[in-house]
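Possible regression after last week's pipeline update?

I re-ran a chain I had predicted before the update to compare outputs. Posting the input and the new output here so someone can diff against the archived version. Not blocking, just want to make sure nothing changed silently.
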Amino acid sequence: MQDPTETPFVVVGVDGSPLSLSAVRLATQEAARHSRPLRIVHAFNWVADPAEPMPAEPRRPAEELLDHAIDVATRTRPEVPVSTALIEGPVLTTLLRESGSAALLVIGDGGLTLNPDVPADSDATAVQLAARAGCSVLVVREELPAPGPVMVGVDGSASSLCALDFAFDTATRRSTELVVVQVWDPDVRTGAVPPEAAEQLAESVAPWQRKYPSVAVRQEVRTGAPESALLEEARRAEIVVVSARGDEPWRGMLGAVSQAMLYHSPAPVIVVRSSHGLYIQE
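New output (post-update):
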């Protein structure tokens, strides 16, 4: 168990795949931006296949996997302190337990973007972690993102405003533009954006603009399906920030927008937990 006086880790789960090594690279960069140590975790099932001979050193392949992950992290940002954990048990259970004391959990997407028909109640590890983790979760794509803006969707809920704060902090540390998107129902008379929409969004953004004065902000008010509107902006983003669930973040569920971003955004996605403040706390 982590000493409560220690700086919380950025935790990344690895399985040796190219995708998980991309997750290590991005997790290391995040740890460096926040001056946090990195913890690389591999969950291992020790139950041997009865059809296969028992290896002389059953732990060795897993240890080599972690050694390779350390090498990737060190080459990415050599100044980041790195530790590892080889834990017996299921991947999902292990990483959920790790998330309870982590600053941020980083995981590969498991190929979500390759399957357009992923159901909303998917049991994919990345989806389950984003829905149930005790901290914010960064879901990584195999290709690291090109430089671009941070994008966040807001709907006026307390949970989405927490995501807005998180997104401002992320844009500050990346020295990049922040795009804030809010989707409204169209005006019943004109079918266009309601005239009060831009003003209300500006009012929502203003306190964070004062808190983070160095961030260049572009505010976008759209009509239509929120999922489609945010996905359009996500195609140009370096990273996407969404709240776990706009109006009911405590239920351990994912809202429609966060699901859509996980399944379809080409950029990495951070699913923010409003009750978890360790990540941006100094």
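Follow-up from reviewer: compared with the archived run. The chain has eight helices and ten strands. Marking as no regression found.
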